[in-house]
């Protein structure tokens, strides 16, 4: 009987095949007390298990280094680094040791007890991205438990097409050697996915995971159809069931009828043709039918991302989220030299194209250390974060500014300041930039010129754009936060997320006004939020007068395709009318 399971769409595309279930849930763990004389031996068992996992991950890193970038994307390398950091985390190591020494728990019990303690800390975090790091902790804990039992750390069988056809593996579907296979599991780690990439699977689905989980990030980078957050999927699907993974809709169809398989087969072929067609636009200039040149830039998280963004057709980097250099380091901030090398890597990777580096955007709701908790503020999302956090720690901020200025000597670079509101903040920020430049001059250290811009992501900033234009070379509209703060909606809060609406008239008017005022002043303005990468929004933003878009590199070609079909001049009156609507969604967004 056909039935559907709904989850989160995290990686686009359609995959149709037979289900292969993997046991990736937590292992059964024995709980017993040990004798005092056994303490050191139990601690050693955990240490040996951990070291075995570290060695396996390091072997994977070496394998990745030998691979072509398309086979092992840079995101995977970064996420494996994150797992190594967790394995070496002092809280994890010391916590396990205390459970064994003070409570006389056996090694497995101590490990899972400390996992529970740290998992609760992750659950309390307000930032969605950091909250989802709990899954990484669970994954590495399970790997250590498996290693302590002498089992492989990976939950994914490493079957290859050759091995399957040779019958050399214990594949339960030998009679279906030519049938695509779909992996169904409770959870999969990034390193599991590396095995997955080299195996026979065409798609995967998991019970747990969010849109920002490491598994989801790697799935997108590998371009594998995937759905996560399916809750009981691994229990409802049986070994060898036919399943369809709809990575566009976030649905898994189980035991589909022949007609449903035919429908999805058609969608699959259509999607493949669409990707092939878009790939032909890679080197096509983004120009509208009336000759307007549009700049399509990339949002990146890591320094190595810049080179990949250029390969994906980006005209430069519109947003380098530097906070990812600072996060998950157990409180040890990167020094000036490390930051300089990272920023220079991005600038070198851009091959002469412009790179915009946003200063660190962390704070109360984005703690640097996963174990850090803000219990002093009632509403940390509105508290000490982004530029407010930087201004509160001038020494840290100056270190970052010096590193960026030094890197700017190697290519066109812009500085982008997040979450400014007050004129006093603007003046103090600019004074610190001047101070950083003076420090480098006094030390005789080479540095480059930078354009300085500000993010418009708070309604108060959008309503005072002329103030910002007095001080800055360009502005960038962060539509995610602007929508969130305008509507007072935390989009990561499931109870109110349905009210998050970037098409709300108030949001559209703030965006349109900001673009208009920048254009009238002759200052560049870009949009770097989710709206920029949504082809359904492209016509509206063009009609508002936007000429610079910054988005995930994977969205560039679909947006370019839309741009090539638009007459920006004709879109203008339509967009103005739409912005003036009380309910813009009541109108047809696609046809001016």
Provide structural commentary.
It is built from 23 helices and 16 strands. The protein has 592 residues and is α/β, with parallel strands linked by helices. It folds into three domains: 3-23 and 179-277, Phosphohistidine domain (Glucose Oxidase, domain 1); 38-149, PtsI, HPr-binding domain (Enzyme I, Chain A, domain 2), CATH 1.10.274; 281-369 and 382-580, Phosphoenolpyruvate-binding domains (TIM Barrel), CATH 3.20.20. An eight-stranded mixed β-sheet has the order 1-8-7-3-4-5-6-2. Helix 1 packs antiparallel against helix 3. The longest helix is centred in the N-terminal third of the chain and has 28 residues, at 39-66. The two termini are 44 Å apart. The relative contact order is 0.10. This is Phosphoenolpyruvate-protein phosphotransferase. Residues 277-565 form the PEP-utilising enzyme C-terminal domain. Mg(2+) binds at residues 457, 481. Keywords: Cytoplasm, Kinase, Magnesium, Metal-binding, Phosphotransferase system, Sugar transport, Transferase, Transport.
Give the name of the CATH architecture of the largest domain: Alpha-Beta Barrel
Global Rg: 25 Å
Q: What is the mean pLDDT?
A: 84
Low-confidence stretches: 158-177
Across the major sheet, the strand order is 1-8-7-3-4-5-6-2
What fold name goes in the CATH topology slot of the largest domain?
A: TIM Barrel
Q: How many β-strands, per DSSP?
A: 16
Terminal CA distance reads 44 Å
Helix content: 40-55%
Tell me the major beta sheet: 8 strands, mixed
Shape: globular
Strand content: 5-15%
Tell me the count of domains: 3
Computed structural class? alpha/beta
Assembly annotation: single chain
**The CATH fourth-level homologous superfamily of the largest domain:** Phosphoenolpyruvate-binding domains
Subcellular location: Cytoplasm
Domain Phosphotransferase system enzyme I N-terminal: 6-133
GO molecular function: kinase activity; metal ion binding; phosphoenolpyruvate-protein phosphotransferase activity
Domain PEP-utilising enzyme C-terminal: 277-565
